[in-house]
Amino acid sequence: MSAFPIVETEANVTRQVMADHPELMVVTFAFGKEGAAGSLHNHPHVQSTYVAEGRFRFIIDDETFEVGHGDSFVIPSGAMHGCVCLVPGKIVDCFTPRRDDFL
Fold this sequence. Notes:
- By secondary structure, the chain is an all-beta fold.
- It has a single domain (7-98), classed as Jelly Rolls (Sandwich).
- The protein contains no helices and eight strands.
- It has strands spanning 6-10, 13-21, 24-31, 37-41, 46-60, 63-68, 72-75, 81-96.
- Strands 1, 2, 3, 4, 5, 6, 7 and 8 form an eight-stranded antiparallel β-sheet that branches.
- Strand 5 (46-60) and strand 6 (63-68) form a beta hairpin.
- The radius of gyration is 13 Å and the shape is globular.
C-alpha cells in the first residue's frame, strides 16, 4: 500500500504516487466523472500509460485516439499531451526519471 497522499489535480481527477525511485515512478490517476480532463502539458520524462479501468480520449502532439481497459502506450519526452475521460476509471502512469514535482 502506498504511503503517499491522494492529491486532487483537476476537477474530478486525483493522483497518488504508488512507488518511486530516482530513475522510475509509478502513479495512479483516478477520473471520477465523464468529461474530467488531464490538461494538455509536457515534461522531459518518458511516460508509459496503462488503462486500468474506464475509457479515455488522448491527445499526443497532433494525434488523437481512444483507449480503454488493458490498453497501454508510451508518451515521448517533451510531447504535448492530455486526455479527456469518456467513462470514469483509472490510469497508471510510469515516469522515467521520477517526477520530483509529484513528491
